[in-house]
Design a protein that fits this description.
single chain, 83 residues, Ribosomal protein L7Ae-like protein, 60s Ribosomal Protein L30, Chain: A, ribosomal protein, ribonucleoprotein, 24% strand, Ribosomal_eL30-like_sf
């Protein structure tokens, strides 16, 4: 399950703005996007990931992604940071 990869990541950036920075700096190995997140928010990061060759994985919900990241609120986007 993809949530396990989020939980096992040594370092994460949570949120669209932080994830965008991580991808722009070529530090992201994989980006997780919640299927129920607003597409107007997620389309930019999806396009950036395609451009930079970063794997995009869609997960079921913002609530589950937030929980996998260890936060009490939903997360639209989370990026696994390459150590």
């Amino acid at each position: 399950m993809s949530y396990d990869r989020v939980k096992q990541a040594a370092k994460l950036t949570i949120g669209t703005k932080q994830a965008m920075k991580t991808v722009e700096q070529c530090q992201a190995t994989e980006v997780f996007i919640a299927k129920d997140a607003d597409p107007r928010i997620t389309i930019k990061i999806v396009n950036l990931c395609k451009k930079c060759g970063v794997k995009v994985t869609y997960v079921d919900s913002m609530k589950m992604l937030g929980k996998a990241c260890g936060i009490d609120v939903g997360a639209a986007v989370a990026a696994v940071v390459n150590e």
